[in-house]
Amino acid sequence: MPKIMIVDDNPQNVYLLEILLGTNGYEVAQASDGFDAFEMSKVSPPDLIISDILMPKMDGFTLCKNWRADEKLKDIPFIFYTATYTEEKDKEFALSLGADRFFIKPMDPSEIISSVKQLLESYEREEQPDRKYPSTEEGQFLREYNEVLVRKLEHKMLQLKKTNSRLFALFFSSTIFNLHKPYEESVYQVLNSLTEKAGYEKAAYFRLENADFFSFDSIGFEIDTVNKFKEEIGKHRGSSFGLVGKCIKTRAAINTDSVQENPDWQEGLEGIKSLLYMPVQYDDQLFGVLGLYSTGEDSFSEEDEQILFTLTHNLAISISNRISQKQVQTQMNRLASLHQIDMSINSSSDLSLTLSIVLSNVIAQLNVFAADIVLIERFSNEMKVAAKSGFMSLLSNDAIYTNQITQKVIRQQKTLNVDLTEMELPNVWAKEGFKTYWGVPIISKGVVRGVLEVFNKTIYKPDQDWLDFLETLGGQAAIAIDNVETFDNLINSNLELQMAYDSTIEGWSKALDLRDKETEGHTQRVTELSVAFAQKLGISQSDIIHIRRGALLHDIGKIGVPDHILLKPGPLTDEEWVIMKKHPETAMHLISGIKYLNKAIEIPFCHHEKWDGTGYPRGLRGNDIPIAARLFAIVDVWDALSSDRPYRAAWPVEKIYQHIIQGSGTHFDPDLVPVFLKIHKE
Fold first, then answer.
1. What pLDDT, on the 0 to 100 scale, is given for residue 66?
2. Dist CA 165 CA 310 (whole Å)
3. 173 and 312 both lie in a single domain
4. CA dihedral 131, 132, 136, 138 (to 10 degrees)
């Protein structure tokens, strides 16, 4: 059985060659560097040697030189197998040292076996090449050897510089969407970093909505080319246009060496010969496609694919977080709008004023062009305009309304959407140029009292949240009407709204719990325990209401923490902790603009502060920490330690008691600890 020596410092390469040669009937010996291989072979010579070049102690070139200079080994076949030295001059130098073959990784296994077999057979038939063994003149060898090393070092340095530039661009681009900048500015900075910092020739981003083109931004193209391209993509749906459409449809990278030879190429961007498209997606959400373009063929390698994949993955996470934050902010704004309307209802009996406030919030929060509220006169059954906003024509209040669309909403008693471009319009609407109509019946005590109508001058397809909020505002209008008619009904309605606010807050807290399955139910438990603790301390009922809301929202700031950090099963890195510790400030940012929740902000913002001043985010000390946050800190730790987690079981009660006692005066308020322990033991 022929014996083959494998020399490589990469265990994976050795293992693969060992399996390949062993299954083809060869005995295998191995060494991790040239020095060990040379010493082992002098003791037990192999029939053939396969060696890497770049290795510690003794590299492959020096091994080959010594091999051919040794009387015992010089006639044994020598094969180089390398992934580092791949240039023709490297091959020439290797063969000049006496190597029989020069293979570049990776190589087809069948070719390796065939070459080994042929080389062994030729040596057995004594058909060895009439080789002139390399000169033993050390100076010549060193000159040639140094030339190879210097050339390789220069090549590696250029590669390293290029890779470093692209990794820097990757890091820079990945952080852009985490900053609170306008979307368009963020896109431009990403494209600019790819061209200016990473050195790519041209770059573009296709922003998508519902897998269709929403916008196109680029760097490196002539303005006329961009305008023509934008005009062209405006004629197509996203998944039906060119190679970018194929990327959208398959949600996979497209790396084309020569676009002119690709039958799917429809983009027609002048001068482009090769491109790389990568989908920007997270979970099942596709946000867009990032593209790199070159005027040369075969311009993008697997390394470029990996860099762009990592970038788009990070961008997708950032965009997803931005959307989540925007959704939360929208809900916060809408909650504030409801509260503003509620305040008007509570403080004023002027129906016109209250309805005007409703309409101002309709236009601001739903982004519509105009809105009005039409009420039905109780005795005459005539429809009259009670309030309006956004109309250019002179539509006076109390104007009598006679149109079939409004009557249909009243008759059907349900929300109605109408495409106004497909029908004959009432005269007032025609003058305004409206194209889309939504009407919501204002129903009080089962009776239709009027219609809340909104108008747009573009075709608009809202989501369910939009519709829900529109109907909620219709309900607010109904409440306002009830308020004018009866003060008692106002009291009941106000209580219902208060419950709706608290239910919304509870809904947010449950949504946060559901996001992190490992802590599900945590929010409800700490809220109940915090309320009981506050009552025991003699805190007023009005303040306990804010403590309850603060407890429900204590982790609202974690909406800004990416899933890969929040849900990470293992310990966080220092960089990840920096991001995690920002969640109290995110909570402050989200809640501070809502007066309704101003007094509830102490727990979300301060519950990670510690009595000795070592907490975050502000490092408050002692009584500078609000009482609500001080009592909640104890409750939060108690619930965390008394609950099972994937990485540990719940602690025994006595062990938790000792932990809290040990934290008294450092982590916890020393005056509150005994009160809490007494409550719990009771």
1. 92
2. 15
3. yes
4. -100
More confident call, 553 vs 622: 622
Residue 556, both tokens: 């609202």
Q: What mean pLDDT comes out for the span 160-178?
A: 58
Boundary of a domain, candidates 435, 466, 485 = 485
Give CA–CA dist 206/212, Å, rounded: 9
Roughly what angle, to the nearest 10 degrees, separates helices 302-347 and 464-485? 10
State the pLDDT at residue 162. Answer: 60
As a whole number of angstroms, the distance between CA 43 and CA 5 comes to 13
Helices (H), 367-486: 404-412, 427-432, 464-485
Q: Are residues 503 and 479 in the same domain?
A: no
Residue 658: which CATH number? 1.10.3210.10
Q: Rounded CA gap, 626 and 54, in Å?
A: 63
Last residue of some domain: 444, 466, 485? 485
Domains identified in the chain, total number = 4
Predicted pLDDT at 458: 80
Instruction: List the domain range (segments joined by +) for residue 88.
Output: 3-136
> Is the CB of residue 532 less than 8 Å from the CB of residue 610?
no
Query: Is 511 domain-assigned?
Result: yes
Higher pLDDT, 168 or 618: 618
| Helix, strand or coil, per DSSP, at residue 291 | strand
Residues 310 and 195 in one domain: yes
CATH number at residue 249: 3.30.450.40
Confidence tier at 171 by pLDDT (50, 70, 90):
low
154 belongs to a structural domain: no
C-alpha 662 chain-centroid distance: 40
The amino acid at 357: I
Whether residue 340 is predicted with pLDDT greater than 70 in this model: the reply is: yes
Cis peptide before 106 (omega within 30 of 0): yes
Full DSSP string of 26-92: -EEEEESSHHHHHHHHHHS--SEEEE-SS-SSS-HHHHHHHHHH-TTTTTS-EEEEESS--SHHHHH
Average pLDDT, the chain: 82
Judge if 624 and 480 occupy the same domain.
Answer: no
Residue 522 lies in a domain: yes
Q: Counting every residue, how long is the chain?
A: 682
DSSP letter for each residue of 199-244: --SEEEEEEEETTEEEEEEEESS-HHHHHHHHHHHTTS-GGGSHHH
How many angstroms separate the Cα of 103 from the Cα of each of 59, 76, 82, 111, 599?
Answer: 16, 17, 6, 10, 73
> In a 3-state reduction of DSSP, which class is residue 99?
coil
Flag whether 183 is in a domain. Answer: yes
CATH of the domain at 96: 3.40.50.2300
Mean pLDDT to the nearest integer, 642-668: 88
Q: Could you give the percent of the chain with pLDDT greater than 90?
A: 27
The C-alpha angle 644, 650, 651, rounded to 5 degrees, equals: 165
Per-range mean pLDDT, top range of 321-325, 443-447, 665-669: 665-669
List pLDDT tens digits, range 107-165.
888 899 999 999 998 887 776 555 555 544 555 655 555 555 545 555 555 555 565 56
* Same domain assignment for residues 296 and 170: yes
Helix (H) or strand (E) holding 456: strand 447-456
Side-chain-side CA neighbours of 526 within 13 Å: the count stands at 35
Same domain, 470 and 502: no
Q: What is the pLDDT of residue 481?
A: 81
In the DSSP assignment, the letter for residue 12 is H
Given a contact cutoff of 8 angstroms between Cβ atoms, the answer to whether 276 and 255 are in contact is yes
Cα 507 to its chain centre, rounded Å, is 23
Q: How many CB atoms lie within 10 A of CB 488?
A: 9
Q: Let me know whether 640 and 616 are in one domain.
A: yes
- Block residue for tokens 């025991």: 536
Residues 379 and 308 reside in one and the same domain: no
What average pLDDT does the segment 186-203 reach? 82
